[in-house]
Amino acid sequence: MFPFADAVISGSGTMDGITIRVANGFNSTIDRMSTSGSHAGITVTYTIGTGLLRLRGTASTAAYQAALRDVTYTQTSTTQGSRTFIVVAGTAIYLPDTGNLYQYINTGSNITWTTARAAALAQTFGTYGGHLANISSQVENDVALAELTGNTWIGASDEAVEGEWRWMDGPEAGQQFWQGGNAGSGGVPVGGLYNNWQSPEPNNAGGEDYAHMFSGSGEWNDYPNSLSVTGYLVEYEVDDIGTVASLVRLLIGTDTDSDGVPDGDETSQGTDPNDPDDYLDTDGDGVPDSVEVADGTDPNNPSDATDSDGDGLSDYQEGRLGSSPLSGDSDGDGVGDGTEVAAGSDPTDAASFPDADGDEVPDSTETSQGTDPNDPNDFTDTDNDGVPD
Question: Is 4 strand, coil or helix?
Answer without folding.
Answer: coil
